Amino acid sequence: MPMRPSPASPSAGSGGAQAIIGGRRLVGHLLGRRAVAPTPAGDGDDDATAGEARPVALVVDDSPIARMLITSILESFEVDVFEAGGSAEAQAVVATCRPDVVIVDWTLRDETATDVLDALESRCAGGLPPVVMVSASARMPADLRATTTLRKPFSPRELYAALATAFSGKRDGAAEA
């Protein structure tokens, strides 16, 4: 549940640097680049993210491995991530902060994403933030409260597309890369 420390910036030779920089700009742009105190010069951040608050994501999945993978992708986009294994942990997170996006697995061990969203909705003043629903199942109910859906396994590019859809305010039902 606690926020993980920010990972070290990947080297330019890693092949993923351009996607990571693009992801930082996308998330910053879509969230309106909330201003914070300027960061010291020369800290390694690119100019697009200097002086901006990092967006916050809540990842709800009963699989620790799935949470770790989603968290790693989001952190590469400089998103602060809180993790939860179910609705009780998710409620504890929203009691301390308001996430900018919720990424939730459709089928959890003892509940569904609907149960999680019901619990969160009662705690989130002003309603739920955008929701990205993920699932390994080929079929999910049509009446989801998700802004977009994403089928497991997914690539960082597909998660990027889902975030773009979620933050656009449009409901499309599926994210395509």
TrEMBL record:
Which residues does the record list as 4-aspartylphosphate (modified residue)? 105
The record's CDD domains line, in alphabetical order, gives: REC (cd00156)
Name of this protein: Response regulatory domain-containing protein
Record-annotated Response regulatory domain positions = 56-167
Q: What Pfam families does UniProt report for this protein, alphabetically?
A: Response_reg
Return the Gene3D superfamilies for the record: 3.40.50.2300
Please report the organism this UniProt entry assigns to the protein. Answer: Pleomorphomonas carboxyditropha
Tell whether Phosphoprotein is among the UniProt keywords.
Answer: yes
**Entry-linked SUPFAM superfamilies:** CheY-like (SSF52172)
Biological process GO annotation list?
Answer: phosphorelay signal transduction system
InterPro entries reported in the protein's UniProt record: Bact_response_regulator (IPR050595), CheY-like_superfamily (IPR011006), Sig_transdc_resp-reg_receiver (IPR001789)
The UniProt keywords, alphabetically, are: Phosphoprotein, Transcription, Transcription regulation
